């Protein structure tokens, strides 16, 4: 045994130590979260138990417990019984050992149930040391991201395989040790040495050393400050809550997370592998299942309720297929969400994305065919592209807002159907529940699985959602928020980037030429018949209506709210607008009437008037018609809905147009220092004087108007940056 063997063992030891260090670092990071969570969780559980009357113990024992003497002894709650224990209960007159033991046992069963169901809510408006410590601990794992998770999984597997082989191969590192070893021991050592070489060579080939080194850095990194962690939590609360649910072990009901699929379908989906090599986002358990469903069943409808991440699940499926060698994918969506799709694919995956839209779409299509990646196009543009004729092997076709093709006689439905015939994997996405639209559902299934369409009976929908989902299990998966989100409501922000219509562009140019900053901000609604923002607003409100969700719409401008009111007049009750001229008592009546409305309703509010002092927690969808000049204003408006008493995830949609004032506002206001200032606003002084942390309206307006006049080559008709009041 010589130098080569010693070097091989040394290489194996270095790799083993690097892998073990990553596992240990991850274990410490997880333990830090659990340590921070435990006292918070225990206090919440204790608070619940102190509110449960001792008489509830009778229900648990079907009335067999006699608790009269326990109550006479001053024990009023389940928490008090747990504190007392059986010994103290036995000291009460008339309470024997059996009664005491059974009473405490019943109390412990209730306590176990409470601990399973209680959820931690992190209030960023009123942070306190314990929840801040929890956010800081979570931040390490959230910031490390899916790459660290991949490194930990690889490191765990490697240590289990490499550790025993290094032990067996130890004699090969010295000539004397090999000479003194028995023959069978030498043979085992040589076999183990060969395995060590194989594992280290494979690790080097896979770039595992770099992955482990980066994971070690990421898992040891701490946020710059508590404030930095809290700001990040506010921006990505869904990721934090998802990780918290996973680490706390309080996962949603498995049957609900799997959409109440029959066992045989669910089992096939569970065994579907899922490669995350090209993915840049961690999936929650139900999202991973949805991705596997799309892959295992091949041609399906993913009908999750809005806000559950259908887009992310679709991207995860594309990333998996890409890792397996597929090269071409196509996403078809309404024009209003095309930009969002391209940005999400770029952000959430390593896949190349090409927009196939606009006057250059044919050139883009040719480039996509030649280079591959994800092409993103619209229903109308799809009709102008030739279907795959053998020169392109389409890995997956994704149809967003699939209910748009429910009528098989329309040209868009025909185009989608023709493309679907040339693709083995097709994924339809829709947030519209299908249970009450069986005929529409059949139309979609005819495109995907014609042989199944005839088996879907009208009575399946009438029988209820669970029965319907089981009947259509091979092709349809839907989960609701209340079934799969175990934590208290998160806040989901979505910037809805729209490409302005020609009419929008015309109105915007007129406002820029006039140097009228406020007109520039609301130009997207000046031509309601052809407004890109208004089209997207209708889509969001319609999907909310389909899911029975209430919507609050904020704008700084009353004329914009009038346009919105007219656009939504035929889609359900619309209340408001609440504006500065509406007396406070009348404002509260509008909010009360909005809250009392059954199912879906819309409340319109001028943001400066409706964003302060009113509680709108009946709404779980918030639409901001335009970006505001002060982050404080947006925060206060959103906080009207996202507050204690809210029972659903709050989805915030901020409508933005590319290439103009919205673009410039977002870039100016959403830098790191702005986020810190926005967080500092929560002090009493900042709340009372928000201008203290926001830049001057006038200076900001002048800057943007001058830049836009230069970009568009328009001369000001009057002084730059005319600031009109927001009415």
From TrEMBL:
UniProt KW keywords: ATP-binding, Helicase, Hydrolase, Nucleotide-binding
Coiled coil spans: none
Protein source organism: Streptomyces lanatus
Regions crossing the membrane: none
A GO term for molecular function: hydrolase activity
Name of the protein in question: DEAD/DEAH box helicase
Enzyme Commission number(s) from the entry: 3.6.4.-
Span of domain Helicase C-terminal: 536-697
Top-rank EC class of the record's enzyme: hydrolase
PROSITE patterns found in the cross-reference section: HELICASE_ATP_BIND_1, HELICASE_CTER
